[in-house]
Amino acid sequence: MSTVPPMLRALVDDAAVFPPGNATLADAVRAHRGHRASPLTDLVGPLVVPAASLDDLVSIAATDADAAPLDIALVGTAEELAIAAPQAAATSTLLLESLETRLPAATPEAVDLAVETLRTTSENATPTALELALPSDPRDPTWLAAADAAAARGVRVKLRTGGATAEAFPTPDALATAIVALVERGVAFKCTAGLHHAVRAEDPATGLVHHGFLNVLLATRASLDRADLRTVAVVLEEQSAEVLMEDAGAVGPEALAEARTWFTSFGSCSIDEPVQDLRSLGLL
Question: What's the confidence (pLDDT) of residue 74?
Fold first, then answer.
């Protein structure tokens, strides 16, 4: 029986090769297989790998042909993915779980072009996440039209929630507006960058304030419950673990598990940091 509750299953995509982790591909594969052999395997999503590294990944995976197929998500341009995805899908030592691409612009035309470029893999039902760069105000009609196009095309959206500079972090108001807009449209989303900890907090090393993944999960639930934008933003702004745990208890684990239909996962270069936070909160 899994030790991971449903509301946390496959929550953390293993992005070990990306900054600031920057693990080598061989080390990332070895560590990912370790996660798969641990009691917390159900917490971890696929290993996220650049499409440009696929040939190296195939070689590394082949060195342990007796192991279970390596579950992966490929990241790259739509053109790179259109080439790499069929190769990955045809490799017996790999299990292609999803495709992720950052669009050059958050417009409906860019969404349509990316989906058409990936049409063959889309027809094979490989889940696809399109990163729509958040403007300062996601109520911008062009961004909302891109979200409409994602809904029409049946693809997920990827939201960048951090980076190396303060400008890379969307404000709580901007992130709340995006979450509400996507939930209203029935569009699932994942988050990437800057979301290593459960609760919103300042990084003492950089002074940057990072969003918390528990905040995002509760904000998603609030959006499903038709909370207004300000209420959702307040959830994202909360920096008290005690308050968030009280909110989580009031909502209940089943309702939070339902919210995972929309907030599918977040990428983290560290699995240990989210695990430590979840344990300290008593969620694992």
Answer: 97
Q: Name the residue among 187, 191, 121, 192 with its Cα closest to residue 156.
A: 187
The answer to whether the Cα torsion of 256, 260, 262, 265 is positive or negative is: positive
pLDDT tens digits along 151-170? 999 999 999 999 989 999 99
Over residues 137-145, the mean pLDDT reads 89
Among 252, 259, 275, 250, residue whose Cα is nearest residue 216: 259
pLDDT at 88 over 80: yes
Helices (H) and strands (E) in the chain, counts: 12, 10
Angle between helices 54-62 and 78-89 (to 10 degrees): 20
pLDDT digits (tens, 9 = 90+) for 25-79: 999 999 999 999 999 999 999 999 999 999 999 999 999 878 999 999 999 999 9
CA distance 62 to 67: 9
Spatial separation of the C-alpha atoms in residues 241 and 248, rounded to whole Å: 10
CB atoms under 10 Å from CB of 153, counted, come to 18
**Which pair of tokens denotes residue 261?**
């239909």
**Radius of gyration from C-alpha coordinates of the chain:** 18
CB within 8 Å of 42: residues ≥ 6 apart: 2, 3, 4, 8, 9, 10
Cα separation, 59 vs 61, whole angstroms: 6
CA angle 167, 172, 176 (to 5 degrees): 120
pTM for the whole thing? 0.96
